[in-house]
Amino acid sequence: MRLSTGTIHRAAALCAVLIAGVLPACGQGGGPPAFPPPEVSVVTVEPRDLPATFEYVGQVAGSREVEVRSRVSGILERWNYNEGQPVQAGESLFTIDQKPFQSALAKAEAELASAEARLAQASRNVARLKPLREEELVSQQVYDDAISSEQVASAGMQAAQAALTQARLNLSYTRVEAPISGITSRALKSEGSLVEAQQTLLTTISQIDPIHVIFSFTESEHLKFTKAVADGRLKLPRGGTFDVNLKLADGSEYARAGKVDFTDVRVNTATGTIEARAVIANPKHLLRPGQFARVQLSGAVRPGAIAIPQRAVLEGPGTKIVMTVNKEGLVEPRSVEVGDWTGEDWVITGGLAAGDAVIVDGVVKARPGSPVTIAKTPAASSSEKAAAGSSDNAANRSPNAPTSPPGKMSSDKKPAASPTASR
């Protein structure tokens, strides 16, 4: 259909009116509707002295551990102790068949008596020949031979006395005694077995009060620890001796604290670690040699340290980042250097200063360079959040619901520094 010229002119006029009405309406809004700045919670950086703790895996060992072996060879006649029970030093543990040693003792006594008789005879000869020699009724050679015979007889008697002493010792060694007081292990040889002197292991004794806990740390951790002390970022406990607390396999804490009493000066070439030792009282014998425990060292202090909640730290490309709010109220990302953990907080060793406002809650809504509104209620600390979470879980948990076992320490929570104890 062909439109007339009048119809075309009327349509053009209508479009012009519509365009004139729509464009002013669009211009009045100035673009899409604006949203208010997101609300975030922040913590203000405040340097303070923080307790420094270090955690390692340790293994319990007796403070004194002795292998019991017989000093003489023979047949094991009987046991004189109850396996796994405490014994006192000097208490009889085993008896070796004494008959061969009693016979050897009798023989040594007889040989001593014979040696004494020979010495007496030689002494009488010398006494007889001495006046005769003075009168020159016997030759000097005869007299010298008599004196030599007396000396040989005297030496023979001394040898016989030594043999008798050895025979008595061997007889006494048939009574295998406990060299130290402690807890015995099981007997490794049954009655009637042949025991080889100095070779056959009969049992072991462990002294477990006090008890030792052996742990180790890497060479790298030791260097970081030493540097932190030298730089003043870590202050050692008084006397340089760390306090020790243990966490047992069931997650419970051992009731008694101890002290680090030894740190090896050598690095183990096989493992690249340095061994250290703690000593802890164990009067109830709850700790047993061989068991594992978490060793927590405390007593050191980080002076003027900066710590922020871990949830405020973000992973960046090859670094860690926190979001801060500057004086203009704009979000400013900051690259930071992190150190050790303290509770649920992360120690910051570089990138932040006193007075900086770090975003803790609402980090997802914060965009670099964009404005934000700081919440009036300050961000809850890690310990407060943990306590609140525990209360909520306790309230919501069914009375019969099982509790979770304690988790293992995450590898990224392992302290970067390691203690060096002085004796």
Description of the structure:
The protein has 423 residues and is an alpha+beta fold. The chain folds into three domains: 51-59 and 207-382, Beta Barrel (Elongation Factor Tu (Ef-tu), domain 3); 71-96 and 176-199, RNA polymerase II/Efflux pump adaptor protein, barrel-sandwich hybrid domain (OB fold (Dihydrolipoamide Acetyltransferase, E2P)); 98-173, Helix hairpin bin (Helix Hairpins, Orthogonal Bundle). 29% of the residues lie in helices and 33% in strands. A six-stranded antiparallel beta barrel has the order 2-9-12-11-10-13. Strands 6-5-3-8 form a four-stranded antiparallel beta sheet. β15 (319-325) and β16 form a beta hairpin. It is elongated, with a radius of gyration of 44 Å.
Gap from first CA to last CA: 110 Å
Q: What portion of residues is helical?
A: 25-40%
By oligomeric state, this entry counts as: single chain
* Tally of individual domains: 3
Concise account of the structure shown:
This protein is an alpha+beta fold and 423 residues long.
Key attributes of the depicted protein:
423 residues; alpha+beta; Elongation Factor Tu (Ef-tu), domain 3; OB fold (Dihydrolipoamide Acetyltransferase, E2P); Helix Hairpins; 3 domains; six-stranded antiparallel β-barrel; four-stranded antiparallel β-sheet; 33% strand; disordered N terminus
What is the topology?
Layout: H1 5-29, E1 39-44, E2 48-69, E3 74-79, E4 86-87, E5 92-96, H2 99-134, H3 140-173, E6 175-177, E7 182-184, E8 194-195, E9 201-218, H4 219-230, E10 243-247, E11 258-263, E12 273-280, E13 292-309, E14 314-316, E15 319-325, E16 331-342, E17 345-350, E18 357-361, E19 373-374, H5 382-396
Parallel strand pairs: 1-19
Antiparallel strand pairs: 1-18, 2-9, 2-13, 3-5, 3-8, 4-7, 5-6, 7-9, 9-12, 10-11, 10-13, 11-12, 13-17, 14-15, 15-16, 15-18, 16-17
Helix pairs in contact: 2-3
